[in-house]
Design brief:
single chain; DNA repair; globular; Glutathione S-transferase Yfyf (Class Pi), Chain A, domain 2; SOS response; alpha/beta; Rossmann fold; DNA-binding
């Protein structure tokens, strides 16, 4: 899978931009706050209809403009697919082959990507919501039905929590049971999908982590389910507690992941280097897992992370990626990028202006 080109209209600091990409490696070179990350954000938005940096769509639209557009051409093994996402006064519009998709779940998966940004280093030691979002994004790309169930679950959860905020005397437990059924229907499917996904991810990540650590470390990924045995019975058992606290206390919206090296919890007792190696192993494992699930390698976005990794990990990352994926890198200098291939494109970025290097 390759992203041949991209067109931006009123996206962030770009008024009207068109870029054609190299099929192997593309490097965006420039100082901070010049617009490098905005390009990778635009690619992420084209793939997932969401930014990885903000949940506020208005921040993506150029100052004093009402609408914006991101479009691109995706080249797969046997076809080329034009994609387009717009933010308008009427909302979000996503198109495949110039035709509007009525459901976002039918759009996502046309362009699969793996993103490695500084915040991804928080995957191991950060808050649980970071790890839940990680599962949702990656599963949503390879299993459209998961994205559908996740959206329906979150909608049911929002409705249930809103109802729980009523005065206790006004709560109708029969109506609460109806809301519970919706939560159970999609929540059980989410937990099954997550468990299968983590098992497959662990299989790939264990092999990669052994290679990165010269067989010295054994990586284990544990899916920590908030629901221990039966969602329905546990939800019912906590009904009075939920009414008292005005929120839903049980369900996959409280799931988490834990990472272990040689049976030791990395978040609690691992070094910073070990935490970064675990994050790197997971990102590299995603490449193989997406290929296993879809038959296409994803594209890889590396947003200012090369300086966060030592030379050994940089080489492992670049060598693994370039053999499989089309890769996009943002960086302030080429000094720490060693053994670059001959086939690549370098784009100089300064004050929102992008020029391809000769």
């Amino acid at each position: 899978m390759k992203l041949t080109n991209i067109q931006l209209k009123n996206f962030r600091n770009y008024d009207d931009l068109q870029l054609t990409f190299h099929p192997n490696l593309n490097i965006f070179l420039g100082q901070n706050a010049q617009g490098k990350t905005n390009i990778l954000e635009a690619i992420h938005f084209l793939a997932l209809t969401r930014s990885h940096r903000t949940s506020h769509d208005k921040e993506l639209i150029r100052w004093n403009k009402d609408e914006m557009r991101v479009a691109g051409l995706v080249e797969k093994s046997h076809t080329k697919v034009p994609l387009e996402v717009q933010l308008t006064t009427k909302g979000r519009i996503a198109k495949v082959n110039h035709l509007k998709e009525n459901r976002i779940a039918d759009y996502i998966g046309q362009l699969n990507l793996i993103m490695f940004a500084p915040e991804n280093l928080e995957l191991v030691k950060g808050a649980p919501n970071i790890r839940r979002r990680f599962m949702d994004i990656e599963l949503g790309q390879i299993r459209p039905i998961y994205l559908y169930d996740s959206m329906r679950y979150n909608r049911a959860l929002k409705e249930r929590n809103a109802y729980l905020k009523f005065d206790k005397s006004k709560i109708d437990k029969n109506f609460l049971a109806v809301l519970d059924e919706q939560l159970l229907e999609h929540g059980n499917k989410i937990m099954i999908e997550r468990k299968q996904f983590i098992q497959k991810l662990e299989n790939h990540a264990k092999k990669i982590h052994k290679q990165l650590t010269h067989n010295l470390e054994e990586l284990k990924i544990s899916y920590v389910q908030n629901v221990k045995e039966n969602f329905a019975s546990e939800l019912l058992a906590r009904q009075d507690h939920d009414i008292f606290r005005h929120q839903t206390s049980i369900g996959p919206h409280r799931d988490d992941l834990q990472f272990f090296i040689n049976e030791i919890n990395v978040a609690d007792f691992g070094s910073q280097g070990q935490q970064r190696t675990v994050a790197l192993s997971i990102k590299l494992a995603e490449i193989d897992l997406i290929f296993e699930e879809t038959g296409e390698y994803p594209i890889l976005l590396l947003d200012d992370v090369m300086s966060e990794l030592d030379n050994h990990r940089q080489l492992d990352l670049i060598a693994t990626a370039l053999n499989k994926t089309q890769t996009f890198i943002t960086t302030t200098t080429l000094d720490h990028l060693k053994n670059l291939p001959d086939g690549l494109s370098i784009f100089n970025v300064e004050k929102g202006e992008i020029k391809k290097a000769d």
